[in-house]
Amino acid sequence: MSDDLFELDGALGELAGISSSEASDAMYILGLPDSVLDPSVRLLCGQYLLGRAVTIGRVPLPENASVADQHPEFSLAIQEVIDTAPRGAVLVTAVQGVGTHANWGGNQALRAKQVGMLGVVTDGAVRDIAAMPELGMTVFAQSCSPRSGQNRFATTVKNQPVVCAGVVIRPGDILLGDADGVVVIAPQNALAVAEKAKDIALSEKKMHAHINAGGTLKEAVQRYKVKR
C-alpha cells in the first residue's frame, strides 16, 4: 500500500479533538451510513485515537486444518503490515468476533511504537495489556486473553477491506475513538464530518450554558439542537 493514503491532507487535523459521539451525530445529520463499531469493542488502554487504518483479516482454524492450509503466503502478514506501516497508522485486526485467543501483544506493540503506529482496533482479544501504556499504544478490543493466537487463526486478508465489529474498514479509512467507542470515517467525508461535528460541539456548549443558567432541557433542545 502506498504512503499517499496517509498524507496529512488536513482531514486528520480538522478532526482532532472531536469526540466519537460528535462524529457519529455529524454523520447521522449528513445522511452518511452508520459506521460505529459494535460496543463489544471497547477502549482498554489510552484515551483518544485518531489515525488511518491498515488492515488484517483472520479466521479461526478448525481442528482439521493448519495455517499452511489457508493462505500460507500470509503466515507473517501481521508482522509485514506492522513493519511497513506509515506513521500514524492503526492496525485493524478483524477476527469475526472471536475473543478467546489474543491477536495483539507486546512484541507487535514494541515494533508498532518504533514505526510510529498509534495502536490497534480489533473485534477479538489482546494480551500484554499492562505493557501498552509505556509503549504509547491505544487499544480497542473485545477482551483480553493470555492465550496466544498462534496456530489458532489463519490470516486471509492483508491490507484489503475487512469487516470488524459490524463495519467495513478499508485501508486508509480514518478511525476516531475514545471512551464511547470507535467511528470509521471515509477520507472523502472527513472534512464535512469535521465541520458538522464542530457545529454540534458549539450547539452543545450553548445548551449547557442555557441549562446552567436555569433554563429547561426542553428549551435548550428547541433553541440549540443541531438538526438536519
From TrEMBL:
Signal sequence extent: none
Classification via InterPro entries: RraA/RraA-like, RraA/RraA-like_sf
Cofactor section: a divalent metal cation
One Pfam family named in its UniProt record: RraA-like
Highest taxon of the lineage: Bacteria
Name recorded for this polypeptide: Putative 4-hydroxy-4-methyl-2-oxoglutarate aldolase
Source organism of this protein record: Alcaligenes endophyticus
